[in-house]
Design brief:
Length: 409
């Protein structure tokens, strides 16, 4: 039977017949019937044997195709997961570099990345905007005339106010907040030990002296008899230091610290921009200090997320002093009330179109407060600022343009 099946596999049916005849030793009718029966059996065996691999091959092919489909889906899922993870990682790393948050893999950041993170480039934006507003309020900034002189001067003032002095402020603030950050954000460069005290000292001194040197150069370039820009830079440095450092540490004292922070982001860069292209008047000082009260409200928004750490370390932020419920209404009150006061002032000096534009820019801020901030100021602080702060800074520019184009100023 083994020989029959093996011969049947290769199709040698004639050999099977000869073998059977030789084996039987008969040529009778019975022998011929036996041969025919053997032939039929061999054909059936051949058909069965030949069809079996086909079925097996079809089954194997189907199984392979199914496996391939599953494999492709798995590969695609892994690729999408990797791509999504990379998006999250890159987005997180960008936010980390800007100083907004810690990202996955932060411990692999280079020393340069950590030092940039300490300077919090994301906080330079409102300061740079303040310089632009001051230049606009002077009425003497020109895009075309003496091109590109005014553009380069404003860029230098932006570097002075942003990377140099705001960067200095953020570096020393992180150093004196290292105990607080060890509670709220232990992976930040200083509490994690990746940036040392000596690193902070070298970086802060480099930024401070760079800012002072640039301010003195600009004073000399524009021909100031009194070094106005240098005085503003020195005053801003002093405010930055007493805001963060003991024994005064203004940030521990609620209103004082928060207002100092608001003025540093609105009034000081405005003064720098305006004094570079024009004269800094008492009226402008008062107006910008009023706007700084609105900035105070923005600064309070940032205090809600660190309320636990502030309370544990005895820092008297407004959310700690008044509680979340009262502090959130104080926040929106300061932001809205003083913008309305500035709009009323613009109306009074006959800059009515600008006053109406400013009122229009306050409306979406109020909407964002009602929808996001007031329901949960801790959870929605970032969402609120993303939707409301652009309108606040546009309102500051509107005020600056109103002053710059007012015939009485």
């Amino acid at each position: 039977l083994r020989r029959i099946f093996s011969l049947a596999w290769v199709g040698n049916l004639d050999v099977i017949q000869s073998d059977l005849l030789a084996t039987s030793g008969r040529t009778s009718k019975d022998a011929l019937l036996a041969v025919e029966a053997s032939r039929m059996m061999a054909m059936r065996a051949s058909t069965a044997i030949r069809s079996a691999p086909v079925r097996n091959r079809k089954t194997a092919a189907a199984r392979e195709a199914k496996g391939n489909r599953a494999g492709r889906l798995l590969v695609r899922a892994k690729a999408e997961s990797k791509e999504e993870k990379e998006k999250i990682t890159y987005g997180g790393r960008a936010q980390q570099l800007l100083g907004f948050r810690q990202a996955e893999g932060a411990d692999k950041a280079s020393k340069l990345e950590l030092q940039i993170q300490l300077m919090k480039p994301g906080t330079w934006i409102p300061v740079c905007w303040g310089v632009i507003c001051g230049a606009a309020a002077s009425g003497n900034f020109h895009w075309i005339e003496d091109f590109p002189r005014d553009i380069l001067l404003s860029a230098a003032c932006i570097v002075l106010s942003g990377p140099c002095l705001t960067g200095f402020t953020q570096v020393i603030n992180d150093w004196y907040d290292r105990d607080l950050d060890a509670i709220n954000e232990p992976n930040r460069p200083i509490p994690s030990g990746r940036i040392t005290g000596q690193d902070v000292l070298v970086q802060s001194l480099l930024l401070m002296f760079s800012g002072w040197g640039l301010a003195l150069y600009l004073d000399n370039y524009v021909g100031h008899e009194f070094p106005t820009l240098t005085s503003i830079a020195l005053f801003g440095t002093f405010i930055s230091y007493i805001y963060s450092a003991p024994p005064l540490k203004l940030k521990q004292n609620g209103w004082q610290g928060t207002y100092a922070l608001g003025a540093s982001y609105i009034a000081l860069p405005w003064w720098a921009g305006q004094s570079l292209f024009g004269e800094l008047s008492l009226e402008i000082i008062v107006l910008t200090l009023m706007y700084s009260i609105a900035g105070l409200g923005i600064a309070i928004v940032n205090d809600f997320k660190s309320i636990e750490g502030d309370r544990e370390l005895g820092l008297k932020s407004l959310p700690v002093i008044f509680g979340v419920e009262k502090a959130k209404y104080i926040t929106v009150g300061t932001i809205d009330a003083f913008q309305l006061a500035v709009a009323a002032y613009l109306w009074a000096i006959d800059s009515k179109p600008y006053a109406l534009v400013l009122l229009g820019l306050i409306v979406p801020q109020v909407y964002a407060q009602i929808k996001y901030f007031l329901p949960d100021p801790i959870k929605n602080d970032v969402a609120y600022q993303a939707r409301a702060q652009p309108f606040l800074v546009l309102g500051i520019l509107t005020t600056a343009l109103a002053i710059g184009h007012n015939p009485y100023h």
